Structure formats: structure tokens, C-alpha cells
Amino acid sequence: QVQLVESGGGLVQAGGSLVLSCSKSGRTFSAQVMGWFRQAPGKERERVAAISWSGGITYYADSVKGRFTISRDNAKNTVYLQMNSLKPEDTAVYYCAAAFNPLLSGEKVVTEFTTPSEYKYWGQGTKVTVSS
To answer: What is the pLDDT of residues 114-131, one digit of tens each?
Structure first.
């Protein structure tokens, strides 16, 4: 069962921009922290960004820092990834995911939940291809 749905992927030239969106699919669940992961061909899935429920705490991988911005609109049950200055090495399938731990603050989940196995709910992914 898909509980998150991503959209916005496509083909873009190097240096261009793209915005990804991710929304809950229906049944409510905890979205204390939302994250974006990506998986390139032949590579392991890796975290690129995460955000707390309030939006006050964010994480960015060094490879995307300064180029990508994560945000969320809880009234719309949607999280976004604004991607600027795209590079060919950004080419991957991008996945939206949700993580939570009722015993931890959102800040701690953002900073301490670093692997895919720690995120509970996932979308099916959206492909981003950046050409030279």
C-alpha cells in the first residue's frame, strides 16, 4: 500500500531547477519528520534532506547543501523539495518518506534517523534526470 505519493520529476538541463512534491495518500499517520532520499543506478539509497513537523529543523546532505531546499505545508499534508543548480550527479529516483518516534523530539529524529530502515512510510519514487 502506497501511503505517500511523489510528483514533479522529469528531465532537466544542468544548472536548471525542479520542484518535487509529496503528499499523504489518505489514511492518517504520524509525519513527525519528513525526508527525501534518492537512489542512483548501482548505488545505495541515501538521505538528501529532512524536516521537522514545524519546519523549524532541517537537514541537508553536504552534496546538496546550498542548492536544495526542503519545506512543508501541514494544512495541505504536503512536503516539497526545491532543487536548484542541478548537476548530472543529482540524477536518481527520489523518494519521500516519513519517520517518527514518540519518545524523541522532532529535532532528534531529523538529526539521528539517517538510514532508510528508520523511516516508516514511503512513496514509490519519482525519476529525476539531469543532462549535461
So the answer is: 999 999 999 999 999 999
Nine-digit cell at 27?
Answer: 489514511
- Report the distance separating Cα 22 and Cα 72, nearest Å: 9
Element (H, E) at 71: strand 68-73
pLDDT in tens, 2-43: 689 999 999 999 999 999 999 987 666 677 999 999 999 999
DSSP-assigned states of every residue in 17-50: -EEEEEEE-SS----SEEEEEEE-TTS--EEEEE
Bridging pattern class, strands 126-131 and 10-13: parallel
For 96-131, letters b (16+ CB in 10 Å) and e give bbbbbbeebebeebbeebeebebbbbbbebbebebe
Residue among 28, 30, 24, 22 nearest 6 (CA): 22
* CA pseudo-torsion sign 50, 53, 58, 64: positive
C-alpha cell at 95: 523518494
